[in-house]
Design goal:
The protein is an alpha/beta fold. The chain is built from five helices and eight strands, in the order βαβαββαβαβββα. The strands form two sheets. The protein has a six-stranded mixed β-sheet. A two-stranded parallel sheet has the order 1-8. The radius of gyration is 16 Å and the shape is globular.
Amino acid sequence: MTDPDEREVLTWELFGLAARELAQEVADSGYRPDIILSIARGGLFVAGALGYALDVKNLHVMNVEFYTGVGERLALPVMLPPVPNVVDLSGQKVLVADDVADTGATLKLVRDFCGEYVADVRCAVVYEKPQSEVRCEYVWRRTPLWINFPWSTQPPVVPNASVLDA
């Protein structure tokens, strides 16, 4: 059994290595995506790094809310606007990029959303957890631990104005 306080810690420097190794894994498989579909917010970093490493300039963003805090999440992931236009994805080879496949619910939602329109859809994540219902084609590391990402470990510099107005 793992210690609940034990964490996987990803630094910015280690993220650079992880992203490059993840891109190499995609390249070595022979997969050449036409589009990288980022799951915001954590997937934005991954998609950008993969886009440069794989020389893919066509990046799209899908906003999905699921986690509301450490170990806290909504009952189901929710797509937030703007939702990508399926016409833009039609017939393309799509690489879905995210930081982690935890439960896999977010990745499943996105993969299923574009799956019927695209030629091929595959998933690339920095981390995959054992309980994920989606087994990603490209994974840098597998861990059962909570992950401290360099982009989300620190609190916001400015509180979210929409939360303050509520």
